[in-house]
Task: structure prediction
Amino acid sequence: MNKVIFFFLPLLFVACGSNSTAGIANTLSGESTYKEQFVDENNCSQIIDNEFIVMCYDYQKKAVKSVSYTLIGDLMNEQNIDDRPSFHVEKELESKNRTSSTDYTNSGYDKGHMAPDASFDWSEESLDAVYTLANVIPQAPQVNRYAWSKVESYARDKAEELGELNIVNVVKYGQRSSRMGKNQMAISKGYFKILYNKDENYEECFYYNNKLGVSAQGDVLEDHAVSCQSVTN
Result:
């Protein structure tokens, strides 16, 4: 009996070691982890892929839960188109699940891009793709225009540095989110930005509270850094 036990112990050790290695690999940044974790059929009412960005949309919230895309470094300063298109309804959604620009009227919130227009202004097609209303959420103006825009710029610089950068923006909602507009769109508590490149063994994550009236003066990018393991919606 002692010989049998001695024989199986090494096998057990090898098996555990193999699983541990796989676990470590899965925590590293990669499209097979973050994108599939947050843009998943079990987590989304509908997944909308317009070739430039992939959106996880929630019918009940009338809003996007996460948006995934890849930035190519060489394209970040390729053209910088000045003219911006108008926001448009997402035609892939049934009308009962859509929002409209008028939902934002007098709300106090900006139409905040999840996939930012400044990262897609290298062609008219890519710009139009991020001006779908499915790609925007109600964002506190001081966050959208100052704090959030800093991390968007940082992501573009990082894409140029690494050559390519994968991004997943994850929106965090409360159990009973406030609503706004005729279509009763949910207002989020905040949002995460996950930056990662598996080949370069790189990942960084940031979180922003979606609070009205908070000053952005003195806002520092590093103050928003969080562990990527803490990201949830």
